[in-house]
Amino acid sequence: MISVAALQMPHSSAGDQAAVRQMLREVLVGREDPEGFFAMCVSILGHQETRSQFLSIIKPLSTANIRLHSVLSSIYQEYFSKTEDDELELALALSLLEMKDQQISTPNQLPPHPGVGGNASCVLRNSNAKSQENGCTQQEDVPGREKSAFVAQSMSGSKENFQENQTYKSTYAEVVDNKSHGTSQPLYVPDSSTSFSMPNTASVSGQVMKEGDLNLSKKPRCSKNRRQRRKAAAQQIRHHLFYFGSGETLDSVITLLLSDVLSWVHLSFLSLFGVLRRRRVQGSPLLWGELALSCFCASLERIGSHLIFLKASGEGNEDGSSLHTLKTLIKETGAQTVMANALYEPWLKERDDVVFSALHKEGVECKMFHSYCLRDPFSVSTEGVGLRGIGSVSHFMNCCRQNPGASIGVPLDPPVSLPSPTCWPQGVPLDMLGLARMPRRKDGTIIDWAENIRKSWDFSEDGAHARLEAFLHDGVYRYEKESGRADAPNTSCLSPYLHFGQLSPRWLLWDAKGARCRPPKFQRKLAWRDLAYWQLTLFPDLPWESLRPPYKALRWSTDCRHLKAWQKGKTGYPLVDAAMRQLWLTGWMNNYMRHVVASFLIAYLHLPWQEGYRWFQDTLVDADVAIDAMMWQNGGMCGLDHWNFVMHPVDAAMTCDPYGSYVRKWCPELADLPDELIHKPWKCPASMLRRAGVVFGQTYPERIVTNLEEQRSKSLQDVALVRKQFQQYVDKRSGCDLVPLPKRLVSEALGVSHWDGAVVTEGKQFLLPVITRMEFKHQLEDPDADAASNPYNAVLKGYVSRKRDETIAFLNETDFTASVMYEGARRQERLERDYRRMEGLPPAPSNRGRARRTPTAKDKFSVVPGASLRGESSGERVSKGQTVEKLEENERNKAQAAISAAI
Ligand SMILES: Cc1cc2nc3c(=O)[nH]c(=O)nc-3n(C[C@H](O)[C@H](O)[C@H](O)COP(=O)(O)OP(=O)(O)OC[C@H]3O[C@@H](n4cnc5c(N)ncnc54)[C@H](O)[C@@H]3O)c2cc1C
């Protein structure tokens, strides 16, 4: 192993050198790819310096790792042999500059709010705070209560506030009544006191601010580290809120954002191989992070406080550098208490545990609070519920009901002031973090890919509340029935604010329940969010590896042209293109459109779901490692709750853009086509195209694939192939896929700790049958059949009748996925009716759609995946499985499990 520290970078700054060295270490241990490393050098050192220094930087590799050296050299040669024109052309294409004259408005048509917002993140606090003055709340009844009293008082504000909160809490518990289960038990709501509530409160400029990582308000402060621990490039913004104190109360508070070296990695999207890989790694979320931090700084200034930015530095790995920086700060400020909000990504939790335990050993009191999710994902348990239907939101909510754990808690008023230390520690300016750095051309000019994103959003907490208000006054009334509409602002558009902690889920849930219209579907969305984090804690490889083993071997396309066309919104399918352009220009698209573009990428282009995940990570302003990964796994057919539907790239418009106005907005070159043909311009007569000024290949791209049915058939056949190849992962009885269970779930299911002789042995794999598309089960029997002849064909064609709309709206009250299941079942019914008519058979008994949701002995495809645990080696049922089954037959869960199992 060579010594990275020995590398020479004569003309760069020490910080740059450290960043490059750090990244090279990552390459050497295989956590970073050479391409990502090179791009980082270009970003950090600049073109000139990279050109002159790169070869000497990598020179030590020429003896220590010849292969890597030659890969890096060829990347260098290729990059610097490109002409400026190539790059410019790419930049233009990628920025979709042909649309620059268009007025791009915000995703949900709210008037744009120029200016800034802010977020922030961490707070350092010193002891002896005047608790009444600021609003931190610690309602936990813990032994250290006295010590944390400063927090409790400062956050929850007055006693009256607290009482009001209690009342609110009981109202909340009633409201969260789970309608679909006819039980008065609070849905997904724990009962007793809040598990935290840090410096909440504060009425800043007359605004009630709510809890969030980057806000002053009602909630836990601190951070949510979003790090993408992926091999190509690890990026993160990390913020921590620290409270430093020396007594029973705090006398000062310092808000701190701690960022690590890799956060400044900056990939030029022009850089590599002439192929647009990404806007930049995590470009959009980092941009949001910077703008939101700047707003948060302003909010703190208004109440006489500051936000300090620090870069983690010091020797050692990333834990080491965070720890070193914190220790230095603690020494400087004399702090005795450090508090931070919990991060749930397993690898970040691990790091924080290490840091906190080291600080603890040195006598620093450390406290971690929960804020990002409604439930701490590490505390969710399947006990009493079992594993049947795992992955579905219904199953997850059942688990939360059965094992309520700590209370979700109530939002608190934001602080009106924060006690200041006598001397503020020295930080670095926000722009030094380099979060929203724009790439430069070789001539030094900046390519501002974020112009439209900045116009589209207000990045401040005020912006979050304005959107919430707007939604509660308008969109919320259409949410149940029409949240799929892309042409209307029917969803909340709050995801980036939630992601960056500018709005807490607790507050959102609270407000949604207080609204006159309380759509259960909307409330369940927050459970989806928590579900994603629960899955990530169970399967830390969720963002990279297919959960269903056979699907790792799926044959995927490697067609870069298709990928680029999809990314740039140039597939020739107007609905897909409109959504991808909206994503590029605003950093957002609604949930329905995310399903449409994901289905297109996977089922019709056969590109791996990881490509979609990566692109979303780079371009979504709400890019979230857990949610994104869970959804792409589900879309990629390998998640726990894989989609039982495929969105058709044309017909889905019947639901989401029936009049073509969404396409007209984002693909203006098609604006003059009539409503009925705008989603399929290739069907227009030549004269109509002429009149509308559409020339395929010039003004609008040709379709990159034309044989949709064939493409789908291929996709199905590929799935059948791997399921055949890896039969050990297919349950013979039900035809369902089998997923290896993480030990934590096995223990819960077997009740290992209490159960005689039940030992989950190291290395033994337990397999669980999971929800599996019916069309896959059928295809297994006839692997070469085409998609059209598969009676369970999952392609959704859009909703077409009012009656169906109403039924779907009703089912949406239960779950979005339930509605698409319904549609699938109806389609199946139609097919069967036609078949029977043609064959002269008597009509089938009715009510098949719903019946499919429950297992019947007659229809093997309806068999509900049970939680029969099998030892892989023996293939035999584990005797303890009977106990598991017993648990699962628990009456309280039966109805829910049936629905869960079907979706
Ligand atoms: C392929 C794919 C990738 C996705 N990637 C992300 C992502 O990176 N980050 C992200 O926040 N959401 C992601 N989603 C989920 C969802 O599309 C967005 O949360 C939603 O579109 C945000 O818009 P909204 O705030 O108007 O949502 P609303 O419908 O108003 O919902 C309110 C909030 O609930 C949460 N929520 C809604 N739907 C989901 C869901 N399916 N899973 C988890 N939480 C949900 C979000 O925090 C959202 O802000 C993805 C969905 C798909 C299909």
From TrEMBL:
Gene3D superfamilies the UniProt entry points to: 1.25.40.80, DNA Cyclobutane Dipyrimidine Photolyase, subunit A, domain 3, HUPs
Which PANTHER family does this one have?
CRYPTOCHROME, SI:CH1073-390K14.1
Q: Which GO terms describe its biological process?
A: circadian regulation of gene expression; entrainment of circadian clock by photoperiod; nucleobase-containing compound metabolic process; response to stress
Q: Which coenzymes or cofactors are required?
A: FAD
The UniProt record gives the binding positions of FAD as Y479, T491, S492, C493, L494, S495, F522, D622, A623, D624
- UniProt lists compositionally biased (Basic and acidic residues) regions at 873-894
Annotated protein name in UniProt: Photolyase/cryptochrome alpha/beta domain-containing protein
Protein family per UniProt: Belongs to the DNA photolyase class-1 family.
According to its record, what are the GO cellular component terms? cytoplasm; nucleus
Q: Where is this region: Disordered?
A: 831-903
Q: Which residues form the Photolyase/cryptochrome alpha/beta domain?
A: 238-374
Recorded superkingdom:
Eukaryota
Keyword Ribonucleoprotein in the entry? The reply is no
SUPFAM superfamilies given in the database record: Cryptochrome/photolyase FAD-binding domain (SSF48173), Cryptochrome/photolyase, N-terminal domain (SSF52425)
What are the record keywords, sorted?
A: Chromophore, FAD, Flavoprotein
Q: Output one GO MF annotation.
A: deoxyribodipyrimidine photo-lyase activity
Could you list the residue ranges forming a coiled coil in this record?
none
Tell me which residues are marked as the site Electron transfer via tryptophanyl radical: W556, W609, W632
Q: How is the cofactor bound?
A: Binds 1 FAD per subunit.
